[in-house]
């Protein structure tokens, strides 16, 4: 969904990105066809930068699309990134406070962070061997650290990989480095998705899900403290995606049997299923 909830972008193994209107009479508005193979993810940028959509796919490309002008449904390629040498499995736009910046994770084991410059060119920084056997998912942290009262922004990314690990990364003096090394040994198979929760509390929170059927939530208090991981549930089937509500206190989970469930942390620290969404 776009920022205003008016349009939906979809990615498909047929190699297309489709944009549809949202409403009582939903209709197809545009079909984007410049990927040479399955498209794995799509992501809308914040509207302060215009109407911009990114897509990534099996062909190793990341394409940034821009609508000519609002409501025209005429899309052009703003930029095409080809610096990955294998399938690009995940993309994530940075919080808008950090500028127009896109992270991408690839089966080549690297994470790339591409940032638009004032002159319309892009600067790309790579995190090589982020997950040596392949990166499956990336997610940006909120721009402001939990409990912070200063205007100093933080640049952090969570990632998951085929190595069954969840890692966090931080930019320090213009260089990306591992914040904690591997923070996950809870998953026994590759990590399908990671999601950094909105920073509305007093702790940093990351959710992850795995091919092994487990969903985990990782929390960290003050800077310098260790991450603590807890299994929310073992679904017994692969779990595909995790996503936080904007309030940061509700987690949605989609699994391999087509179920979508919502989870909330109880006062005792245990996670409880709130509801199951009937599709």
Automatic annotation (TrEMBL):
Signal peptide per UniProt: none
Tagged with keyword Transport: yes
Gene Ontology molecular function, alphabetical: structural molecule activity
GO biological process, one term: protein import into nucleus
Keywords assigned: Protein transport, Repeat, Transport, WD repeat
SMART domains linked to this entry: WD40
Gene3D superfamilies named in the record: YVTN repeat-like/Quinoprotein amine dehydrogenase
Pfam families: WD40
Listed PANTHER family: NUCLEAR PORE COMPLEX PROTEIN SEC13 / SEH1 FAMILY MEMBER (PTHR11024), OS03G0831800 PROTEIN (PTHR11024:SF9)
Family per similarity comment: Belongs to the WD repeat SEC13 family.
Name this protein carries in UniProt: Protein transport protein sec13
Lineage: Eukaryota, Viridiplantae, Streptophyta, Embryophyta, Tracheophyta
């Amino acid at each position: 969904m776009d920022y205003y909830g008016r349009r939906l972008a979809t990615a498909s193994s047929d190699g297309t990105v489709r944009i549809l209107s949202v409403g009582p009479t939903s209709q197809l508005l545009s079909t984007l066809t410049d990927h040479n193979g399955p498209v794995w993810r799509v992501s809308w940028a914040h509207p302060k930068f215009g109407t911009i959509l990114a897509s990534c796919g099996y062909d190793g490309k990341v394409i940034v699309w821009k609508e000519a002008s609002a409501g025209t449904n005429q899309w052009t390629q703003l930029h095409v990134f080809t610096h990955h040498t294998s399938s690009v499995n995940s993309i994530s736009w940075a919080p808008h406070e950090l500028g127009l910046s896109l992270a991408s994770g690839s089966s080549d084991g690297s994470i790339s962070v591409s940032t638009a410059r004032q002159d319309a060119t892009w600067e790309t920084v790579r995190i090589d061997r982020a997950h040596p056997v392949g990166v499956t998912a990336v997610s940006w942290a909120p721009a402001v650290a939990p409990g912070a009262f200063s205007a100093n922004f933080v640049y952090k990314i969570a990632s998951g990989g085929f190595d069954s690990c969840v890692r966090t990364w931080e930019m320090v003096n213009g260089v990306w480095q591992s914040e904690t090394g591997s923070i996950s040994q809870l998953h026994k198979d590759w990590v399908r998705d990671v999601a950094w929760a909105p920073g509305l509390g007093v702790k940093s929170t990351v959710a992850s899900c795995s091919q092994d059927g487990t969903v985990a939530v990782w929390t960290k208090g003050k800077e310098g403290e260790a991450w603590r991981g807890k299994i929310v549930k073992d679904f017994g089937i692969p779990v595909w995606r995790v996503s936080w509500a904007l309030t940061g206190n509700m987690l949605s989970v989609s699994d391999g049997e087509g179920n979508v469930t919502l989870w909330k942390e109880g006062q005792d620290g245990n996670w409880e299923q709130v509801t199951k969404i009937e599709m």
